[in-house]
Task: structure prediction
Amino acid sequence: MVILTFLSPIVPAEGQKVRPIIVASKPFGESFLLAEMFAQLLEARGFEVDRRLGLGATEIAFNALRTNAIDVYPEYTGTGLLAILGQQPSADPREVYREVSREFGRRYGARWLPPLGFQNTYAIAVRRTTARDLRLVTLSDLARNSRTLRAGLTPDFIGRADGLPGLQKAYGLRFQSTRALLPAVKYHALAAGEVDVIDGYSTDGFIARYDLVILEDDRAFFPPYEAAALVSPGLQREVPAATATLTELSGLLSESAMRRLNRRIEVDGVPVARVAAGQLLALGLTSRATAESRISATGASDRGVLSYLWGQRVTIFGLALRHLLLVSVSLIAAIAVALPLGLALERGRGAAESVIRGVGVLQTLPSIALLAFMIPLLGIGVIPAVVALFLYSLYPILRNTYTGVRDAAPAAVNAAWALGMTPRQVLRYVRLPLAAPVIMAGIRTAAVLNVGTATLAAFIGAGGLGDPIAAGLALSDTRMILSGALPAALLALMVDGVLGVCERAATPRR
Amino acid sequence: MGGCKECDLIRLAWWRYEEIPLRSNGCEPSHNPKSRCSFLQLAGTAERLNFGRGGEGFANSGGLRGKLPGTRQDTDLEERDSAAAALWAEHVSKRYGPVLALDTVSIGVWPAECVALIGESGSGKTTLLRCFNRLIVPDAGRVRVDGTDAAELDAIALRRRMGYVPQDGGLLPHWTVQRNVELVPWLLRMTNASELAERALTLVGLEPALFRGRAPGELSGGERQRVAVARALAAQPQVILLDEPFGALDAITRADLQIAFAAIRRELRITALLVTHDLNEAFLLADRIVVMRQGRVEQDASPGQLRDAPATDYVRRLLSRAPIVP
Result:
């Protein structure tokens, strides 16, 4: 065993050239941290790792895993039982683990590695003053006072069976109002008194930071949420050695350790990679040299926004290029489809409005929903992101092409007909050139919207400037958010400017 | 009629209205034809340019006096030979949903004649005009062009054979004047398209060197309309359709263009069907006036007979509102 471990960095899987292991996480601090620990551990054992951190939510991450688009991500047994399997909760952690292990293996071929050693259950938190004034200790106490309290809950929690709906049933909760708040803002909202009750995680670093009180789940509604690595069917089959490596972490992380680590990330703002490296070293899983090289690579953590941006310039430039690639590929594809379609619809006007409205419906789909819908069909990464951006670009281009060509200089079009131009000639020599500025304006609109929407591509692991935004939101790190948002805004301005020049070039002299 | 051939043309245009004093713009009967006739600078340009159909030009026709095709006395439509008509519509009807735009309308336009369709908006005059170049296909009735049923003709080829002048010129705003005027010759793949365009520009009084490179947006309203007339004439059609061609122009520009057009048309002996809501314009340009109302023909008569013997109350009312006609 010792020899095997010693050899494994050099020959990870018996001489076979191993593909990169795709390590993913959900978009919150603890998930980032665990995934980063998985990744660094695999790297220390000689595997190549491809990080797709901060994938949308349970739905997106699990669908990606099930379809082998990712290899491993940290998940919680309770979430697996309730949110994925849709089964009734059980209070016994062992029972829950056995159940999800069996069912995930049977239904999806996915494997839960032995738990990491701590539970992170949902926690209903209130301000210390609220708890004192209303004498709140348990959720039953909360239920008695719930009609006077305003809740700010994550959308995930509001929608899940093991979230608000189940909680309402179990305790008879009825809040005065319920607002959906993203993790990044709900703590601020609670501290500022905008809401009175939020959902959190029991290992949250923020609980301590904002001096919150967690109410006891006296009816044991929340099932045990044991953290564990969830491994894809593909990884077990193709790189069993990686699966084995990941089990090295099993049972090593205690709840108090996690609370401390989360606090360092979420409260002290220490980079995730550094915290992960320190913990792996402390657990004796990596060498000091590995950990130190890792730590030095993450750079200083306490700098101003501008010097942080400057320090990240190479990374940001790479992300911006990838962002531009996502936007331009999807835009070109959308032009290639929407432009001819718009022209065809102009010829057969009967169908035009209904087709355009149908395409318009795509526009109304929430981006995250569309991205989640893509995963079973196209996996995660660049391809589904490009397809989603393509779908979002269709409408403005289609609408402007159709309207532009239909309404282009009616007097000139009428004269062109009357003087004997063929339909094709009218289109080519009159309608299209006269509609060009309107069509260009549609393309411009689509492009600028696309630069914005493409930041959401990070949630399905397509990279781009959304990566630091998603991570920054999860870690409540403003600098990190800005390091994605500012370049994205600049990129939007640049794209708009370049296309503006094209638009002027396309405008016929009058 | 004086000795100035150019002035004579004007008199011809006005000859039926002796009661209207001829405007004197400095051209007297003793006028020397070699100097500029300021009243009409355009007459004779077609001949000089060898434009139009050879042998039928003004000079070679032995003059127009007394033999103007449009001056024949009112005759019943039925009595004329329909086969000789340049444009012929027989019991034509067209319905748009609940609206009967044309209700069994019959008219004829004979070669070298100018017929004005006059009426309010919605009277069906534009619909009727568009039946002749098949922009509109009638629900019932027959439309013939040069004796051939229009339904049997290729619509595209038919349109290229006819000139067309819409109200606002309808110039292609992204094309130069030259390219606009060349349009029909170019569509017909004529090799001398640019030459024809230059001639047509000269004919309508626009110096090609000054105008050919300009964009329609750089022209005045009157210049644009002259370009539109030049475009309609460039391929030397025998028939020209005009849909309120001068309606959007100011009074002075309009008068200039009407006179210029009258002269050119007579000189080239072009058959014209003119839609207008301006009775003055009809009296000025047309050999025959067809008054339309609610998809029907109220009266089809020469200007003189229309003035002297309005057939219906509507025509009488129409005449009473036209100040120039006594």
